[in-house]
Amino acid sequence: MKRTLIKCGRLISMDDGIGDRVNVDIMVAGDRIEAVDAGLPAAADEVIDASGMIVMPGLINMHLHTFQAGFRAVGSEWLGPDYFRIFYGDIATRFQPEDNYLGTLFGALNQLNSGVTTLLDYSHNIRSLAQAERSVDALIDCGIRALYIHGDGLREPARHLQRALAYGDGPWPIAQDPAQPDLMQQRVHARIHLHRKCRRRRHFVCPITVFSSHQRPAHCACRALSHSGAL
């Protein structure tokens, strides 16, 4: 069993029993923390000098579209409708399985480099089994602890996406032509479909995650699902 000694600068333990301490050592045996104290014996297979650093448990990122990492800083001036029109409604439709792999691999490695060791990858650009598989391959290859959440991508560029978003007040009419007035009925049907999907997954003891972007909290999809007993 490999033993690793970490010589800390400042330890932020997130543990009331240990507290936050300065100039202490951490002994790790295998994948377990064996001891935390000052002046631990140096009998270790590896010694990591973190004396000028903050040492803390790995961060958890609860929501990241990891495949988009290659577009970091692109569109920093965009508003929400711009993102859906330019990226999700156009660029993302051109992604192939290897694009998903490379974007997810780069994004997940960047998370590790930033101190994130647990990631929820909200991969909302899946149009084929190959795209999903290559996205998961990337998470495995980079070594991060991850929960992979897949979502459907658009099959082709959506010309009316920006106008539809400006016309509606939530995610349901996302690709709806604004010339069609029955948006409220569409939202109701979408919610009923979502309730049924959640109940089906509960039957099979599957995890459920909901991405809701409503502007008004009273119309939040999570709240509606909770009130209906679907969660």
Proportion of residues in extended strands? 25-35%
At CATH level 3, the topology of the largest domain is: Nucleotidyltransferase, domain 5
Number of β-strand runs: 8
Percent range for helical residues? 25-40%
Taken in chain order, the helices and strands follow as EEEEEEHHEHEHHH
Describe the oligomeric state of these chains in a short phrase: single chain
Mean pLDDT: 78
Which class best fits the helix and strand makeup?
Answer: alpha/beta
- Tally of contiguous helical segments: 6
Shape: elongated
CATH architecture of the largest domain: 2-Layer Sandwich
* CATH class identity of the largest domain: Alpha Beta
Describe the largest sheet.
Answer: 5 strands, mixed
Terminal CA distance reads 42 Å
Low-confidence stretches: 160-189
| Total separate domains | 3
**Rg, Å, rounded:** 23 Å
Explain what the structure shows.
This protein is of the alpha/beta class and 231 residues long. The chain has 3 domains: 3-56, Roll (Urease, subunit C, domain 1), CATH 2.30.40.10; 58-158, Nucleotidyltransferase, domain 5, CATH 3.30.420; 170-231, no CATH class. Helices cover 33% and strands 26% of the residues. It has 6 helices and 8 strands. The chain has helices spanning 80-88, 97-113, 129-142, 161-167, 183-203, 221-228, and strands spanning 3-12, 20-22, 25-29, 32-37, 46-55, 59-64, 116-126, 145-152. Strands 1, 2, 3, 4 and 5 form a 5-stranded mixed sheet that branches. The two termini are 42 Å apart.
